[in-house]
Design goal:
mainly alpha, disordered N terminus
Length: about 270
């Protein structure tokens, strides 16, 4: 191969991978900022999706089932798509629509979901574009929390949001436990503990918020703002097509494995 062609190929590969990294960083922030909530039923509220899978039901399949040993959708996705992760374990979050398509296929698999009723409920749920977007939020946030625990998030903005959300969740549980004890005992020691916890919240919360604001001033956040509307469109397509994430005519001629990523970057 001529040196010029080799250089050209190497340069093209670097540019594509840089685009993949940038788009994945933006998608990671998109998931964190759009969907992170204190409770998962705030992402997928049952009252907004009557007759469809609730957040509790969907999470039961996303998570591992310890009693039966059944691996959850999250772990199965990680195992089946190692190419969606960098060598250091960071997720290419641009593949969230693929993860949802994978979840859809698994929940229709008789060998994985024995209950015909559950399979029918999943099928009906995935036919709703709005439900798919909410379910994507549940799956995406679970993935980010999984990665955060392993220090494998790629952006400061997503890390700040996920850590703040997890800390809020922990504090709420602590408040509930302490208030419950106070109500039963009326012990001054517990009352002092409640006051201490309430005093600590503003410092902890504003520290996270300041980190987020600082992160928003960078290129990561600006790239995210460009990608956000495209990601929403792609998530909607997940529920419309069997085994497809985006319409083929949106690929603009790309048929290689990077087509999904390139389409994500080029869609208008």
């Amino acid at each position: 191969m001529e040196l010029t062609k080799l250089i050209s190929k190497h340069t093209t590969r670097k540019l594509v991978m840089r685009s993949v990294e940038d788009a994945s960083a933006a998608a990671e922030i998109f998931i964190a900022e759009t969907y992170a909530r204190l409770y998962f039923n705030q992402i997928l509220p049952a009252k907004e999706f009557p007759g469809l899978m609730s957040s509790h039901q969907f999470l039961a399949w996303v998570n591992d089932h310890r009693q039966s040993g059944r691996p959850g959708l999250l772990q199965l996705y990680i195992k089946n798509f190692p190419q969606h992760f960098s060598p250091s374990g960071r997720w290419y979050a641009i593949y969230l629509p693929v993860a949802l398509s994978f979840a859809r296929e698994k929940l229709s698999d008789k060998n994985y979901v024995r209950s015909a009723r559950t399979r029918a409920l999943a099928k009906k749920s995935f036919e709703s574009e709005e439900w798919v977007r909410a379910a994507a939020g549940v799956f995406g946030v679970k993935m980010l929390e999984f990665l955060a625990a392993r220090r494998a998030l790629r952006t400061d903005a997503a890390r700040a949001i996920v850590e703040a959300n997890c800390q809020f969740r922990f504090l709420v549980k602590e408040f509930a436990a302490v208030v419950g004890r106070v109500g039963k005992s009326g012990d001054p020691e517990y009352l002092a503990r409640v006051k201490e916890m309430f005093d600590a919240v503003p410092v902890q919360v504003f520290t996270k918020v300041l980190r987020k604001i600082e992160a928003q001033s960078g290129i990561e956040y600006r790239q995210y703002l460009k990608v956000k509307p495209r990601m929403l469109r792609l998530l909607g397509k997940t529920g419309e097509r069997e085994g497809a994430v985006i319409p083929l005519n949106s690929l603009r001629g790309y048929t290689d494995p990077l087509a999904l990523i390139l389409a994500f970057l080029l869609l208008v």
